[in-house]
Design a protein that fits this description.
This is MHS family proline/betaine transporter-like MFS transporter. With 88 residues, the protein is mainly alpha-helical. The protein is built from four helices and no strands.
Length: 88
């Protein structure tokens, strides 16, 4: 049930919010479904082997760690002062 709700929301988001043509949005969702269906089989078998809780924890760890890979380092306050002084 949740998967179908996600599909309809994705279609709505593509068509109405992002203004992608309806036919193109449908093809995008068909392509995404074709790609993800084999992944269900893989992850179900993995979940059966290692247990559901461990599978959920592993996915949660990846979700927490992934943004750290793409994060830009913050500038320190010293660097910010140097930048503002060089602009003046």
């Amino acid at each position: 049930m949740i998967r179908y709700t996600g599909q309809f929301y994705s279609l709505f988001l593509l068509a109405k919010v992002l203004r992608v043509e309806n036919l193109t949005a449908n093809y995008m969702l068909i392509g995404a479904t074709i790609i993800t269906v084999p992944l269900y089989v893989v992850f179900v078998s993995l979940s059966d082997k290692i247990g559901r809780r461990k599978a959920y924890v592993a996915v949660a760890r990846v979700c927490v760690a992934a943004p750290q890979l793409f994060r830009r380092p913050r500038s320190t306050s010293v660097e910010m002062r140097r930048r503002t002084k060089s602009r003046q």
